[in-house]
Amino acid sequence: MEFIPLIVVGVLMYAVLILPQQRRNREHKTLLASLEVGDEVLTSAGVYGFIAAVDADVIWLEVAEGVELKVSKSSVANKVVLKEQADSDSDAASDEDG
Model pTM? Predict the structure, then answer.
């Protein structure tokens, strides 16, 4: 009976700390797998650019016309989605549903 509170605390710690981190890691791997030439991305350093080329673990990021940076693929934090694109995507999804 003495170990029940310890087990409950362990389960709560797992649910609060480890599960969300695993979910974020899975989402980031999915994001990295979906990167394509032409996508606008934001790196973890705060640099915006368009993907010019994708190698195995390296992407070439065009940050200005004629200026490309070689960055690690894992440094991509997010794809940039314009509001108009997000609205048209949600409209297309709702058309398919109804």
Answer: 0.70
